[in-house]
Amino acid sequence: MRTTMHIRAAGVAGALALGLIAAGCGSTGGGGDSITLRVAGQNNEEHPNTTELEAMAVAVAEGTDGRVTMEIYPNNQLGDYTLMYEEISQGTVDMGLISTPTHLDSRLEIQFLPYLVTTYEDVHEHYTLDSVLGQSMQEIHHDQGIELLGLFAEGFGGIATNRPAAEPADPTVDKGVQLRVPEIAITAKNTQDLGFSTVSMAYADVYQGLQTGAVEGWTGGHPLVNYLQFRDVIDHYYQYNNFFETTHVLINQETFEGLSAEDQEVMREAGLQLTENSYEIAESMEEEYRGLLAEEGIEVVEFSEEELRSLAEHSRAESWPTLDDPEQVELLERVAESMGLDL
């Protein structure tokens, strides 16, 4: 376990925003008219997944000779991700790079499974469209009339607190800290299995909850989120790698199938390039923002590979049995087998 903390002021380096190419008129390779896709984004213009989405739009416009234009609406301009997922399914919004809600299909909860992966080597191998996990995600989205074109790796999550946790590397020790958890049963169970007490709270209330003492920490955020939104109300950040967050590049299936085969391939290739780029971005951003947290005087605790392996084994044994829906269990069995994990 490694602890990092510096005491000095810090600034955030600005992100480079990429411009869009205006699409020209003309026909698709299949003889149809040119098309402008309304694309939902959930982060601001400087967030890496927005700039990569803009880069994808450039690649698509160039690759289709202007037949396909992606018109991006960042920062939840079209609505939050739950609404946008439904709109993409219905075709009232064409496309998005968003988190995926689980209310329409509980199998999507596998993406929140604690310690499904613990390292970026695992991420590179399994968070791809041709892995068992990726193929399963494609099948689930297809059931909702949605095509999955790519995954954006957002990063490994951790736990942020405003009081120190007792023996953080030992999950059997009571940490003496109460954490906010989302209303996802397996997330709450795993947080308890790591030694924390929990209370459910809406994400929008977390900052105030930390201010008022209603909670003493929260689980569910990687370093960038904790730095940008919570650095004034936390004193400790523990890089537990207890989950890995991805957002999904989604397009309405009927809209996608209405494109020519040539233009479909351009969009698939652009989605795969976004996926590949995101691995390096996520890993470097984690390191950068852990450093920025430390520069704010926040204690940053990182765990060794052996400690992460022990935490993962404990969590898989204690928390994974919380999944009791037969379809969830069947999916977990397939994914775990592909990863060489024992249930």
Structural overview:
Residues 4-31 have low confidence and may be disordered. The chain has a seven-stranded mixed sheet, with helices on both faces. A five-stranded mixed sheet has the order 3-2-4-11-5, with helices on both faces. 40% of the residues lie in helices and 19% in strands. Helix 1 packs antiparallel against helix 9 (261-295) and helix 7 crosses helix 9 (261-295). It is an alpha/beta fold. The protein is globular, with a radius of gyration of 21 Å. It has helices at 48-63, 81-90, 120-126, 132-143, 185-193, 206-212, 223-230, 253-257, 261-295, 305-318, 326-339; strands at 2-4, 35-41, 68-73, 95-98, 146-156, 158-161, 178-181, 197-200, 217-221, 236-239, 244-252, 299-302.
What is the rounded distance between the termini? 27 Å
Q: Approximately how much beta-strand content do the residues carry?
A: 15-25%
The main pleated sheet reads as:
7 strands, mixed
Question: What spatial order of strands do you see in the largest sheet?
Answer: 1-12-10-6-9-7-8
As residue ranges, the low-confidence spans are 4-31
Order of helices and strands: EEHEHEHHEEEHEHEHEEHHEHH
- Shape, please? globular
State the helix count: 11
Radius of gyration: 21 Å
Number of strands: 12
**Helix proportion:** 25-40%
Q: Return the average pLDDT rounded to an integer.
A: 90
Structural class: alpha/beta
